[in-house]
Amino acid sequence: MTVDATAGKPTVAHGGRVFHFCSESCRGKFSHSPETYLEATDPVCGMKVDRASARHFTRHEGQGFYFCSSGCKAKFEAAPETYLGDRPKPALMPKGTQYTCPMHPEIIRDKPGSCPKCGMALEPMGVPTGDEGPNPELVDFTRRFWVSAALSIPLLILTMGPMVGLPVRNWFGEQPAIWIELALATPVVLWAALPFFHRGWESILNRSPNMWTLISLGVGAAYLYSVVAALFPDVFPHSFRGHGGTVPVYFEAAAVIVALVFLGQVLELKARERTGSAIRALLDLAPKTARLIRADGTENDVPLEEVKAGDLLRIRPGDSVPVDGSVTEGRSSIDESMITGEPIPVEKSVGDLLTGGTLNRNGSLVMRAEKVGADTVLSQIVELVAKAQRSRAPIQGLADRVAYYFVPTVVLVAIAAFVVWAIFGPEPSMIFAIVSAVSVLIIACPCALGLATPMSIMTATGRGAHAGVLIKDAEALERFAGVDTLIIDKTGTLTQGKPVLTEVVAADGMDEGELLTLAATLEKGSEHPLADAIVEGAKARGAASLDVGDFEAITGKGVKGTVAGKAVALGNAAMMVASGVAIKPLEARADALRADGSTAMFVAVEGRLAGIVAVSDPIKPTTAEAIKALHESGLKIIMATGDNEKTAKAVAAKLGIDEVRADILPEGKKALVDELHAGGARIAMAGDGVNDAPALAAADVGIAMGTGADVAMESAGITLVKGDLNGIVRARHLARATIRNIKQNLFFAFVYNALGVPVAAGVLYPVFGMLLSPMLAAAAMSLSSVSVIANALRLRTVKL
């Protein structure tokens, strides 16, 4: 793609020149093997061409070609097959591939064909392989378009020339001119337009009238009338005759309509291919090969398909991580932005998890493959996006209901226009009647209505995947745009999820170092998450580690045991009271620590208060800004946590959270969702996708907070690859932008048809003396679908 050199994109200096790249991934590929990308071979003359400075470039069937001169480029464009004869053919679709309609995903067939409802060409279901080759319908329609255009242009010159001062018809004479029109229009209508008539006939057989029904009727009527008028002009009464006494023919209208419809279809198919570019871009994240380290220590590149779980792989600087696994050797920073949407690289060392498709920035790593093929996170993301792109949003129901009555209504309007013009129109009234009826049939565009929602959904789900927001289905996206309440957990969502030791307060007569040694030694035997924080904090502060005896954990209170011959107890106030330990001297300090968001635990030695150790889970640096953004998007935020009320309220106060529900268990979260539903709230619930499954299912939209390497995709409508509040902000922006885009599309489609059909019928004629030409109607119809798709494609660049 073309990159703006001033946009701050990644660059590489090579051979005395600076090269600009669209992404870090492309920069990494170039840095790894610049020679692969510097030169191309001119397919015509075989000369080597410098890609960076090449002035002559073209695309053919989705692939770019470089040329040494404009002459070679012109030769190639005139007959590309001549120069591509020895190229491999596109891979065939895998056996068992099923096909579906982009507008009607409920239509599923075992082989290619057209949709029985709308006539669109069926597309392969599931995840693309990346080697599908050119769209056969696009290739066929492009060829038919060029033939139609080549024959329609001389037709237009012959018929419209006299209007601009070219007396072309006088050169031939009126009757010979009509025969020339017949000769030029017949191949267009009877060969090029054959797919239109085939789809139109199928729509009648299937009792699903659609756009092709209208086009077939309009083109067929104009052509058949013109053929009869050319061959048997005497059969027509006076009302059919023009000012010169001849019967007008509309061969040019039939041919130009076909050419313009093909133009619209070609533009539409190309635009629809771009809506699927997100999946192809995701597939491209995974390298085609991996560097395998064999048992004897030798290394060589192998196809990605040959990598098995347990294999050791070398990841060099600039390489993409081929599969999911863990680091066994080395240290480096990994760019995970293409999976998580987070721009800051993540440091990785031995034991850390790696996700396939991410980019190694600088160091060299050795990893052990753990998940390969369809089990990788990237493969799951691609699968999820592919399914989401075929799902239907509830808002589509409105368009479906309108479309059901649309075509029959348009046919009735065309008949009514014909009758009114035939009876009340000026002479030649029958000609006006035919023109208005054909224009009505041609201008109506149910396709614009049908495409309004699916194109936006396809584009949005792909855009979300690149930002770490995975949409399970279109309904979740639509619902999330309308929710007004967000329920979130504290631990791991608002906070880091890794408690740390923050305070050690020694009572009078107790040394702080000794207090920490006793507390950490006792906590070594505990499995509580806070115990790890105390043990790790003591180790970091250089506290000694002793042996513990008579260890006992008291549920809901704390732990006790013997350390260095002393009876030590650590726990909450209830445990101290039960042990007969007075906590009054440090009670105010403990309350102050809790008010600051820490968990304060008392330590007693030999039955006397020895001090306090406090642990807190630090708030993520991005949380406050994310909470502000969520508030600005109209969400009320409720924090539901199992923590005690004081700690929870302290965190909520710091972040400006609207409501706190503390001491709540996972099963209690579903009751909270039900309670809020009863009050009329529309709720999104964010959880880990496993423990919170009942609440996620009960909410209007469930949001699974993934970890980047273990994405819980089945429990929720939206999954965030990185469990971070900023992911919810991005999902909210995406949902609202998508619904806004769909409404724009539907509004345009409704207004276009509501205005276009009456104008084509001739309502403006009494006021302005203007009757719409069928050719202009065809141009408007074609552009309406293209406009809807072009608007949907804007979602690819929406800021999240």
SSE inventory with pairings:
Blueprint: E1 11-14, E2 17-20, H1 24-32, H2 34-38, E3 39-41, E4 48-50, E5 56-60, E6 63-67, H3 70-78, H4 80-83, E7 99-100, E8 108-109, E9 123-124, H5 136-160, H6 168-172, H7 174-192, H8 194-205, H9 211-231, H10 251-275, H11 277-285, E10 289-293, E11 299-303, E12 312-315, E13 324-330, E14 332-335, H12 337-340, E15 346-348, E16 353-354, E17 359-360, E18 365-371, H13 377-389, H14 396-424, H15 429-443, H16 446-466, E19 469-471, H17 474-482, E20 485-488, E21 500-506, H18 512-523, H19 529-540, E22 548-554, E23 558-563, E24 566-571, H20 573-578, H21 584-595, E25 599-605, E26 608-616, H22 623-632, E27 636-640, H23 645-655, E28 659-661, H24 666-678, E29 683-687, H25 693-698, E30 701-705, E31 718-720, H26 725-761, H27 765-768, H28 774-793
Parallel strand pairs: 20-27, 20-29, 27-28, 29-30, 30-31
Antiparallel strand pairs: 1-2, 3-4, 5-6, 7-8, 7-9, 10-11, 10-12, 12-18, 13-16, 13-18, 14-15, 14-17, 19-31, 21-26, 22-23, 23-24, 24-25, 25-26
Helix pairs in contact: 5-7, 5-10, 7-9, 7-10, 8-9, 9-10, 9-15, 10-28, 11-13, 11-16, 13-16, 14-15, 14-16, 15-26, 15-28, 16-26, 16-28, 17-26, 18-19, 22-26, 26-28
Structure description:
The chain is of the alpha+beta class and 800 residues long. It is 47% helix and 17% strand. The strands form eight sheets. A seven-stranded mixed sheet has the order 19-31-30-29-20-27-28, with helices on both faces. Strands 11-10-12-18-13-16 form a six-stranded antiparallel sheet, with no helix packed on it. Strand 22 and strand 23 form a beta hairpin. Helix 9 runs antiparallel to helix 15, helix 16 packs antiparallel against helix 26 and helix 26 runs antiparallel to helix 28. The radius of gyration is 35 Å and the shape is elongated.
